[in-house]
Amino acid sequence: MALRKVIGTETEFGITVLNQAGFNPVEASSAVVNAYVGSRSRIRWSFDEESPGRDLRGIGVIERPGFDFETGLVNTVLTNGARLYVDHAHPEYSSPECIDPWSAALYDKAGERVMVEAVRAAQQLLGPDERMVVHKNNTDGKGNSYGAHENYLIARSIPFDEIVRSLTAFFVTRQIFTGSGKVGSENGRPPVDFQITQRADFFEEEVGLETTLKRPIINTRDEPHADPTRYRRLHVIIGDANRSEMQTFLKLGTTALVLDAIEDGVFADPIELVDPVQEVWSVSHDPTLQYAMETVDGGAMTALEIQWQYLGVTRDYALSIGVAPVWMRVLDEWEKILIDLEKDPMITADRLDWTAKLRIFEGYRSRDGLGWNDPKLRLLDLQYHDVDPERGLYQKLVDRGAMRRLFDDEEVESAVTEPPDETRAFFRGACVRRYPDALVAANWDSLVFDIGEETLKRVPMMEPLRGTRRHVENMLDASPTAAMMIRALGGNDG
Amino acid sequence: MAEQERAQRSSDRTDAKSEQTEVAATGSAEEISERIDDLLDEIDTVLEENADEFVKNYVQKGGQ
Questions:
Q1: Does residue A269 carry a catalytic annotation?
Q2: Which residues of B touch A245 (CB under 8 A)?
Q3: Pick from A324, A367, A421: which is nearest to B40 by CB?
Q4: Is residue A292 within 8 Å of residue A303, measured between CB atoms?
């Protein structure tokens, strides 16, 4: 039986400072995070390992004498339950855990707003001629890529081989509606004018643990941040960072539904590709969507044909078990996008970043007679992703009503500060807001409090669906101090 | 069956929102295409000044 799919995204942002001699991306990224946190309380992120199986019942309290903090890293947790930090040379926002793709897309968008504010704050620290620019993209166009990862909580009981077998062709072909578009190719791939995705050129293996080199289509990182006897976190690294809200919703929603269907064993005979790694970039390199790839049963199928099969199986499955409206919306939008892509990809320019960009590029090419190797097209390619609402081209499209939105500004602003109700992110975010002085460290699956006693108090959260608003809000309301909250939890079986 | 909880896997709030029409793009695809020249003019006003230099200096190492 399929598990509820707890979903979250992680985005590494591109960063640069114009007119700054000796620009250092690590320092700039640190400045962004520090400036955002600024007067807001600083909660450290803890890298402490969890003890497996320690907390099967839910929330409790563990005494932790001599807790060893890892400090010195720029790393914090926000009142919406997200994590904001520096990952290598990039500022990164990891969304709070969400229970459906609608909410996950909203919190992903909220991460862009966080970054806008962070850049504004960091800009105050710069010299008069210096200007910080942050992009929600995945490549510098010179062979350096950075990730936009998706996370899905899945059942530990599903054999990993089965996931790989059923999911690979889906990941190779979903690119046609998950890509954010790119001028040219990189990483030794054949030259191309324009391609569907930012990331495809960087995938070199079918399955593996790496995320920074020899990237695999399916990543095997096994770090559930939850009870490892029950759960696996599928860490998906093959996607692009999307500006389009509909695109993020589609990417997360279709993937979660396909995972449900795999967990319930409906992909008895999945489509398998002869050379999935090569097909990743072959699909990406053909914006006409006509390219057909070889399947192990000797056939040749286009990405659209393969997606239609996945949609068919997944829809039959979803209808047979009965799903909530948000998942019906996923199926509906999935079908619409395939119909439109089949008719004419440009019809999707109001929903997909790659076609929206392509329309701008073609506009410039025809107006100014630009060749595909003109630096101006590469600049447009980058600036589409600029998070600055005054400069980012995505935002220009939104302002003109040329890009469909799922959320209004008010909802996004609210998601910047308020955690989602339905997961442990609620408890995390609420504690950051309510007990900033006592909360000394946090991570995905625990919080550590100093309530003035000899030992620090650690609250494990090994169940992502515990610690919701429904579970803890009354208790929090009745606990004006962290000490009272810890006492309340101590007398509580969770 | 994949659990009755699936039926309520999303909060009512989220479902209600997802069923509402989103903040829709205004105009048909054709109308939008007609406005593309307008759009390019607007982009011209915000585009970074020196494309060559901006692109050349844009290097992003150390990512996943």
A1: no
A2: 22
A3: A367
A4: no
Matching CATH number, A7-40+78-414, of 3.30.590, 3.40.50, 3.30.160, 3.30.210: 3.30.590
Q: What is the distance between the alpha carbons of residues A321 and A327, in angstroms, rounded to a whole number?
A: 12
Give the closest of A363, A375, A403 to B51, CB-based. Answer: A375
pLDDT in tens, A408-450: 999 999 999 999 999 999 999 999 999 999 999 999 999 999 9
Instruction: At A384, list the tokens.
Output: 């589409």
ipTM given for this complex: 0.89
A174 vs A161: CA distance, rounded Å: 20
**At residue A55, does pLDDT exceed 60?**
no
- Residues of chain B neighbouring A383 (CB-CB closer than 8 A): 46-48
Task: Give the containing element (helix H, strand E) for A365.
Answer: helix A353-368
Query: Three-state secondary structure along A202-224?
Result: HEEEEEECCCCCCEEEEECCCCC
DSSP secondary structure string for all residues of A121-154: HHHTTS-TT-EEEEE--SB-SSS-B--EEEEEEE
- On the 0-12 / 13-18 / 19+ scale of CB atoms within 10 A, A277 is middle
Contact (CB, 8 A) for A17 and A28: yes
Domain boundaries, chain A: 7-40+78-414, 424-490
